[in-house]
Write a sequence for this structure.
């Protein structure tokens, strides 16, 4: 059924690559991936991929530059091995927060990354919850942009929380649209935290618009948790405003720097994230629930390979 399909996993997330391969019933291609003594990446695809429809799975999460570079050299290796089509499957797209010039003399690094992927030889991109949907326009090749919201909402529905007693709390104004979508699916009221960023790792949150939260269950959705400053600040605001329980959810658990310590100290009933990034090194978050995006990505790959529509995956 999958004649000519080839799945290749980089070192960025072998477990997710394996899960997708199992979903599709297609073995992962054998690839030798090593580092030269000086840190340069060495790639060798150990099977014939001439004329194949290749899907390369690599999130560009930490170590961001190594994972990105490995993806680029994998694409180059596939192109030079005469693959018919190369799809870069990037469950988490790093550098997405550098999508505009918000100060003088700064780069637009997500555009640069898009250029690098295209120059290396990617024919299409498959990704999940881009920090800014407009990044699709940085590419002149097709970009299939999937959303984890239906999977996360399905999990929250299984908790049988009472919508009458629930408030969806947007952690900042940039997340209002996402929060409204969750509200549409899950019900409840809406509130917005007034977030101001003071540095790359520090945020200030104090005011809450909307609510009320007194005695209610708060659900906070963000696209990513990086240092956890934003989300933990929002949790504090929710607790200060009287929330009885606070659930936190994000598609991308980048969890770098102080994130693990901050999250383990915060008053969070449950932290619900996807496996867009590897989480095997996280030790101190017993309340973390991981939902898998492998079936969604596997289904998208299956449909792309067969030239079928993937729009039902957006529902
Ligand atoms: C901001 O616009 C994003 O949606 C996230 O809220 C933010 O990037 C998360 O970063 P951190 O966890 O470091 O606050």
């Amino acid at each position: 059924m999958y004649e000519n399909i080839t799945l290749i996993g980089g070192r960025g997330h072998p477990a997710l690559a394996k899960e997708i391969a199992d979903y599709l019933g297609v073995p992962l291609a054998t690839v030798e991936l090593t580092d030269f003594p000086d840190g340069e990446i060495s790639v060798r695809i150990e099977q014939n991929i001439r004329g194949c429809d290749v899907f390369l799975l690599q999130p560009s999460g930490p170590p961001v530059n190594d994972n990105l570079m490995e993806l680029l050299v994998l694409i180059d290796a596939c192109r030079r091995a005469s693959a018919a089509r190369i799809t870069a499957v990037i469950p988490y797209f790093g550098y997405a927060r550098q999508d505009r010039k918000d100060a003088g003399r700064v780069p637009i690094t997500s555009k640069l990354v898009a250029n690098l992927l295209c120059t290396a030889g990617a024919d299409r991109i498959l990704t999940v919850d881009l920090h800014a949907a407009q990044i699709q326009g940085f590419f002149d090749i097709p970009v299939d942009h999937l959303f984890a919201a239906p999977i996360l909402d399905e999990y929250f529905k299984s908790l049988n929380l009472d919508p009458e007693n629930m408030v969806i709390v947007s952690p900042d104004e940039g997340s209002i649209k996402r929060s409204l979508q969750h509200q549409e699916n899950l019900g409840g009221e809406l509130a917005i935290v007034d977030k101001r960023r003071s540095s790359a790792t520090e945020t200030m949150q104090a005011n809450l618009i909307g609510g009320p939260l007194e005695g209610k269950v708060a659900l906070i959705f963000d696209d990513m948790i990086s240092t956890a400053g934003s989300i933990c600040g929002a949790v504090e605001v929710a607790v200060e405003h009287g929330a009885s329980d606070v659930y936190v959810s994000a598609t991308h658990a980048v969890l770098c720097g102080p994130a693990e310590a901050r999250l383990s100290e915060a008053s969070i009933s449950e932290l619900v994230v996807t496996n867009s990034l590897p989480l095997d090194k996280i030790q101190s978050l017993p309340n973390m629930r991981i939902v898998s995006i492998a079936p969604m990505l596997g289904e998208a790959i299956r449909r792309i390979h067969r030239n079928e529509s993937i729009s039902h995956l957006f529902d």
Summary: The chain is about 30% helix and 25% strand.
